[in-house]
Amino acid sequence: MLENIIAAVGVTAGVGFVCGILLSLASRFMAVKEDRRVGSIRECLPGANCGACGYTGCDGYAKALVEEGAKTNLCVPGASFVAEKVAAILGVEAEAVQNLTAFVHCNGTADAAAEKAVYEGVKSCKAASLLFGGQKACVYACLGFGDCASVCPTRAINVANGVAKVSPALCIGCGLCEKACPKHIISLIPRESRVAVVCSNRENGATVRKECTKGCIACRKCEKICPTNAITVQNNLSHVDREKCVRCGKCAEVCPVRCIADFGE
User: Fold this and answer.
1) Within 10 A of 168 (CB to CB), how many other CB atoms are there?
2) What is the per-residue DSSP string for the chain?
3) Could you tell me if 153 and 48 are in contact, meaning their C-beta atoms sit under 8 angstroms apart?
């Protein structure tokens, strides 16, 4: 009996020893060598792992740059500084990075937006929106439960008086908040062109008045006064052509509901 146990232990140990040798040889001769540039590029990236580049975090983007020839300007948080360092490592010309910041197209605060129901479920915008579009009468309104704030890596978003607000100084333009918003009322806007419409309601003016006192009523005053034709009213909502906008401020001055703002000021 004892001899059988010793024999079994010996066989097991022998098999383990052989397997260890085989694994060691395999790891040495069959290992896939990683390009050293991947590590160098990874050190240049900010480490936010936000996914704004379209890859699985900074590691995925670093590998894509070396192995797939990905564009050097996809790291929005790193901006031009990172793009230039990455391009230098790869020996290519740096591509320009547009400096973006998130903006919430809603000003339906608690004192402005009417409510159609009392919501007592999970404190989540996604959950609330599944229940008849949420508690606010305006189906385009920010629900104010902070799904966007919870995914922001730099804490650039806070909910004030029922509406999410973005701090441009803290925002890195990763776009995670844009993806998290079930109402799709957050967009990334170039910092150098900062005039935006603080509303997303596409109903007619009379309906908007009932739902929110700060909503766009499509009066077209902004459209008529703009000297560069940068503002047009489409589907009952004002839109800004940022390439034409010169930030003169006239549109904001004539807006009767104050739903046009220069969020850089």
Assistant:
1) 16
2) -HHHHHHHHHHHHHHHHHHHHHHHHHHHHS--PPPHHHHHHHHHS------TTSSSHHHHHHHHHHHT---TT--TTTHHHHHHHHHHHHTSPPPP---EEEEE-----TTTB-BSS---S-S-HHHHHTTTT-SBSSTTS---S-HHHHH-TT--EEEETTEEEE-TTT-----HHHHH-TT--EEEEETTS-EEES----S-HHHHHHHBTTS-----HHHHH-TT--EEEETTEEEE-TTT-----HHHHH-TT--EEETT-
3) yes
Q: Going from the N-terminus, what domains does the chain have, and what CATH number goes with each?
A: 36-90 (1.10.15), 100-262 (3.30.70.20)
Q: Are 170 and 219 in contact (CB under 8 A)?
A: no
Look up the pTM and report it. 0.76
CB burial class (10 A; 0-12, 13-18, 19+) of residue 19?
exposed
Q: What is the pLDDT of residues 106-134, one digit of tens each?
A: 999 999 999 999 999 899 999 999 999 99
Measured CA to CA, the distance from residue 174 to residue 46 in angstroms comes to 12
Between CA 31 and CA 262 the distance in angstroms is 55
76 contacts 52 by C-beta, under 8 angstroms? yes
**Could you report the per-residue pLDDT of 183-227, keeping only the tens digit for each?**
999 999 888 777 899 999 999 999 999 999 999 999 999 999 999
